[in-house]
Amino acid sequence: MSEGGPGPRPGVFDAHPVPPPNGQYPYAPPQGGQYPYPPPQGGQYPYPPPQGGQYPYPPLPNGAPGYPRPPSRHRGLAIALVIGVVGLLVLAAGAGAGGLLYLRKLNNQADEITPEEQLDKDVLTALGARTTALRTKNEKAFLSAVDPTARTVLARQRLIFRNLVQYPVTDPAYRLDLGFGIASRTVTGARSYRVALVHRLGEADVEPVALGYEETWVRRGTGITMVDSVVKENVGHSSKGDNPLNVTALKVVGGGRVTVAAGPDVTAATVAKVDRLAEKAALPVLKLWGSRPGPKGFAVFLSRRTAVKTAWFGGSEIIGSSGFCVSQYAVDKRLVAAGRDPGATPPAAVADDGTLKDESLRLGGSRVVIDLSQVRDDKDLSATLRHEFTHALSVRIRAVSQSLSLDEPYPTWAEEGFASWSEEKDVPLSRSPRLNTLRYLQRKGYFTTGMPPSSRIAFYSSNKEFIGLHYAKSAMVFRYVADRWGAEKAVDLYVRIASGQKNSAQAVLGVSSASFESAWTTWLVKQVRSGR
Question: Taking CA 392 as the corner, what is the angle to CA 389 and CA 393, rounded to the nearest 5 degrees?
Fold first, then answer.
């Protein structure tokens, strides 16, 4: 069977790599007009432009008998990849050879440095003091270097501090990026710096992740002060959105497996209630995942307004989407080490041919966002949480595209199907909401055989009936495996597919991809017709 054009389709359990993009990358240079390092061979910078657009998955017709909740999420990991690359380039440049040699100069050659270099050295010291203040939860010390007349900047820094100290944040540290985007303003004496807040958000992160800022500092007498701070690339979902830690006063509840936070539009009682439901929803998901690599907890953000949700991480704008899970890209361990050891020299993040170098980009954790205005009841909320938690668990094993492309090196049906099966794993097949969806669509003439689409665009960019069909059929792939080979095999199959390996059906189940698809199709048609 062919898909999307002539020629044979790859085995459905094979990886689906996408070649790196060709052509011009129209990124403008940073402020000041110069890139801080020469372009790679060929004269092009290996940056793609920010990507926009959302994959729609609106609700299916209301009132359909036995009809389940519409698809509940939109990760947009491919869009996140672009932003993650930029965020890590910021860190890589700052901790790269040039930046590290400069740090060594500032640390070891106090004599014979220019006034600009002295400012750089003092800013480095100020960031160290701010790191200590955050770790000790000393708000006064944290804000001491901010210009008190810059009220907007002061309010933003106070907000970030008060949000962060409510979380079980592990080893937060502000890192100065001396190698990228410094813009000297000779008239005022101010200099702008790229700064990363490296941290782990409780058990939701298995590796350090980062928030990015551009800060402007100026000398005042014998001291220095921060006069401006602008949110830059956040290692996450989309350039359209921002991390809620930066934008709203949060109420945070947690301490167990799940930490739940919400803005002013959600009451404290509701936050506490969701936290209780989330703890219960996390148990079966963690049990299913077992000892496989992944986080041991989750970070959830709540809102009652879709407009607010879409401002967080650039989330889905589709009405009816009750939640999504956004992956956070990990800061390379060698970059973290370089922050403590100026002699270390980590590799560049992007090779001359535009591909990502090995170990330059990995997933470190996830954030789950829930739109309470789209949740019907507690049962619906629990199912949504289980779905998104399942996505969050697999960040450590999911392959990341080795090209700056929009797609990922594994089929979308596997990602969504595994989460959709996990969400209803404990429900008998005869009462499966996903199977009821297929029976409804079969009566309406939308049911088709064959595997669901592998590409993200094909999976999500269809009418509402076919998107519901894709989710339901994908869930039935893993339901079939669990019923015939056991739940452990279903998880093993997903792990192998999501890690980008080929011949997954043969390796895990002992059957060829073609044989599996044929047997699964026969089984699925029988189940759908049995409900008529």
Answer: 90
